[in-house]
Design goal:
The complex is a heterodimer. Chain A contains nine helices and 19 strands. By secondary structure, chain A is of the alpha+beta class. Chain B is globular, with a radius of gyration of 23 Å. Classes of the chains: A alpha+beta, B mainly alpha. The interface between A and B is medium-sized, with 24 and 17 residues.
Chain lengths: 350, 269
């Protein structure tokens, strides 16, 4: 089972163009800032929104093809959907909610109830079968919604911010449960989120969507280590520079020089964590270090450290200890030198 | 808090608001009080059990019930069409549906007569093809009542449909539910309070219907003389006591039903 989609949607000055595929049993996370068009992709795949152009094929079945004039209605697509606020039917019990899809597909009442009860059991909420949605906690509602979506044995499972409605206390537990349940699902899963932790934990592969286009995709490890846009760099907590390399030296767009850990040629990205940055009042005397002058633009608490935003020819973030803040008397407007060891920089082709 | 509010209200109610309020209340309540004051209590049982009153009551309850059923069966789907589809000329249609709300009922009766009367646009064809003559029948009473009552239901249900979260219907569709299943099992339960409210309004409007009924259906005892025309006929023939008893009966029936249903669909503030 696998899914392959080419989707173009144009409306109200917004343009979305996405090509993506999801393998059988694979969990692909669509990560992006608000307004990137993530939910629109899900609506198109579910059949709730007609794309301007495109083609969607799942297991050899064409779900839509604008050139061929094919557009299967949602009820014929075998798609399961779980949305942020779960949308459990409020007038039905948890069991009736799960049984709804089976009943709609012609399963007899008794068989649907038995199968629904087993799905609730598989998701660990069997004892909630008779409860109404308004008597369920967020985590419980999420499990029931997942059971409802999985009960119809969909070829594609679509999850739209499935953890966003949960409070911070229950989210980690529900997240690891969700990961386990997704691991046991044989169809293609496409999950939308703006939360990088969720993406890194749940994804086999992450597709990053910005302003309606895919800007980067790959396994979580690659994304976390080699970001290719400022947005991705920010969510994985790295500084990202772009320049032209010649041997072990590179020159940034603005002209600043960078010493590289190894030789490279042509356009490159250079990434390094804020903890690798050292701040000092004067230029450090080490040739193995890159050093750029700048000005402190902002200071904020970041865990045990203080995150310093430095403006200058190379804008970057530096995580320093509170002791360093005190010793250097760091404050907005103070000129500083930022230095990074060449060996701390990850260099990869742009 | 509470005491401060009442204290403030007591101190500062402007005379300019009090006088018109009292006049308005008087206009609303005095006629009812006058009616109750003149009820011939000693003859009440006798008048109530008279064939004329009993037949008008039976006819009114029956036709209003059938009208309410017609309004729900036709009005809910119509409201759904207006709220959920991209029908061409939908806003015009919505306007036309609400016309009977502002039309004098007598005009509705005239319109029904010239359309469904024996010489009417459809009535002539109905009569010549099937031998069906609608005017001055109990069916005509129901048609007249439906004409004036259905807009109440359509407006109430359409409002409920517009405020209902359509994403529930999307979820139902992804779960494999057909449009009809989705309507029956998801949409209808969600707008049930609106349907009930609309049905009650339609029923009350049908029960009180006079102008369209008397024009299109006439006022034949036993077949078309519902309570309002019966009260009118009684007062015209000088039988004030029967008119009073019929009026009292209608007040009791309407108030009883409204109070019984009120807690189920109105959140009193």
């Amino acid at each position: 089972m696998s899914l392959s989609a080419n989707i173009a949607v144009a409306r109200d000055g917004f343009r979305l163009e996405v090509a993506l595929s999801v393998g059988a049993g694979e969990v692909v996370v669509l990560l992006g800032p608000n307004g990137a068009g993530k939910s629109t992709v899900l609506e198109v795949i579910a059949g709730l929104l007609r794309p301007t152009a495109g083609r969607l094929v799942c297991d050899e079945v064409v779900l839509f093809d604008t050139d061929a004039g094919v557009h299967l209605p949602p009820m014929d697509r075998q798609v399961g959907m779980v949305v942020q606020d779960y949308l459990l039917f409020p007038h039905m019990s948890a069991l009736e909610n799960v049984a709804f899809g089976l009943r709609a597909r012609g399963v007899s009442r008794d068989a649907a109830r038995a199968e629904s009860a087993s799905w609730l059991g598989r998701l660990g909420v069997a004892e909630l079968a008779r409860r109404r949605p308004n008597a369920l906690s967020g985590g419980q509602a999420q499990r029931v919604a997942l059971a409802r979506a999985l009960a119809v044995r969909p070829r594609i499972l679509l999850l739209d911010e499935p953890l966003a409605a949960l409070d911070a206390g229950t989210r980690p537990a529900v997240r690891s449960d969700l990961r386990r349940h997704l691991g046991g699902y044989e169809g293609s899963t496409l999950l939308v989120t703006h939360d990088p932790v969720e993406a890194l934990v749940l994804a086999d592969r992450i597709v990053v969507l910005e302003n309606g286009s895919v800007v980067q995709q790959g396994p979580p490890v690659e994304l976390a280590g080699r970001p290719r846009t400022d947005y991705v760099a920010r969510v994985v907590g790295l500084n990202l520079l772009r320049g032209d390399a010649t041997g072990r030296a590179a020159r940034l767009i603005g002209g600043a020089p960078v010493v590289l850990p190894h030789g490279a040629d042509g356009p490159v990205y250079m990434a390094f964590p804020p903890t690798a940055v050292t701040l000092s009042p004067s230029r450090p005397e080490s040739s193995a270090r890159n050093a750029w002058p700048g000005v402190v633009a902002d200071l904020e608490q970041h865990g045990d450290l203080v995150r310093v935003t430095v403006d200058g020819i190379v804008p970057l973030l530096a995580d320093v200890t509170p002791l360093a803040v005190a010793e250097l008397s760091l404050q907005r407007g103070l000129p500083v030198w930022s230095s990074v060891k060449a060996t701390e920089i990850e260099v990869y082709p742009a | 808090m509470n005491r401060r509010l009442t204290g403030r209200a007591d101190a500062r109610v402007p005379v300019g608001l009090v006088i018109p309020s009292v006049v308005g209340l008087g206009l609303l309540l005095l006629p009812l009080a006058g009616l109750v004051a003149r009820v011939p209590w000693s003859r009440l049982g006798q008048i109530l059990s008279s064939p004329a009153v009993l037949s008008a009551l039976r006819l009114s309850l029956m036709t209003a019930a059938i009208t309410t059923a017609v309004c729900v069966i036709c009005g809910v789907p119509l409201a759904w069409l207006l709220a959920r589809t991209e029908l061409p000329g939908r806003s015009l249609l919505r306007g036309l549906v609400t016309v009977p709300l502002v039309l004098p009922p007598v005009i509705g009766g005239v319109a029904l007569l010239v359309t469904f009367g024996r010489r009417g646009l459809l009535g002539e064809w109905l009569y010549e093809t099937f031998g069906i003559s609608l005017p001055f029948t109990t069916t005509a009473v129901v048609m007249a009542q439906s004409f004036v009552a259905m807009p109440f239901l359509v407006v109430a249900v359409e409002g409920a449909l517009r405020t209902a979260d359509r994403r529930f219907e999307d979820v139902a569709a992804t779960l494999g539910a057909s449009g009809w299943t989705t309507f029956r099992r998801v949409t209808l339960p969600a707008v049930a309070p609106g349907v009930l409210a609309g049905a009650v309004l339609s029923w009350a409007r049908a029960l009180g219907e006079f102008g369209a009924t008397i024009t299109f259906a006439g006022t034949f005892p036993g077949t078309t003389r519902t309570m309002p025309p019966a009260a009118y006929a009684a007062i015209n023939s000088g039988d004030v006591q029967t008119a009073i008893v019929l009026s009292l009966l209608m007040i009791v029936v309407s108030v009883t039903v409204l109070v019984a249903l009120r807690d189920r669909w109105v959140r009193t503030g």
